[in-house]
Amino acid sequence: MPPDVSVLTDLFRRGVNREGRGPIIEELGLRVGFLNGGAASDDARLSIKCGAFDDPSPNNCLLSLPFYGPTAERVLTPSVLEAVMRGMVAAWEPEWIAAMSREHRDLDDPDNRTNAWVGWLTYFSKQRGTVPPLPAPVRIEPVEDKGTLIVLTPERFTVANPEHVALGRRVRELLTRAGLIHTR
Predict the structure, then answer these.
(1) What would the mean pLDDT of 9-24 be, rounded to a whole number?
(2) How far apart are CA 92 and CA 3, in angstroms?
(3) Contact 31, 57 (CB under 8 A)
(4) pLDDT tens sequence across 63-85
(5) Dmax of the chain from CA atoms?
(6) Using CA atoms, how far apart are residues 6 and 144, in angstroms rounded to an integer?
(7) 83: nearest Cα among 3, 134, 141, 168
(8) Is residue 128 exposed (0-12), middle (13-18) or buried (19+ Cβ within 10 Å)?
(9) How many other β-carbons are positioned within 10 Å of the β-carbon of residue 76?
(10) Domain edges within the chain
(11) Does residue 157 contact residue 141 with C-beta atoms inside 8 Å?
């Protein structure tokens, strides 16, 4: 797909929520998705939901990346994910972003009861509040004047490592105590 404004505008118009062929339900915003067309080990997707103001599920931008194979080894590094997240912040100015596997998400918030997840990398906008001091080896960095990036570990986070899981839980606890995460 060429990066053409008219093509993107048409995609967004087709992504509006409606009942069948009925009128647009403006309160639900719109959705649009992009696929790279790669093989299973190289599959990447971007789905965007925005403009919703009367919907229990939040506006979001979900980037699904390969999780195994050579592409994953190249892409799933703190430096690449940090660059991707900084780009998402510049383009979308979200309240929060989390880079995490589905398995990690299911452990982090199994009942989907909180308003943010804590991933291997997590971003919070300044509107959410101030990120408190966090335990080593966690790294905290500003993202322009917009918010804060949190990197849990310098090595690839995995739910198979109990130290990673414990660190993620501790950071979630501290972020909740600081008011950055709330239960719905």
Answers:
(1) 70
(2) 17
(3) no
(4) 888 888 888 888 999 999 999 99
(5) 54
(6) 30
(7) 141
(8) buried
(9) 18
(10) 1-76, 77-184
(11) no
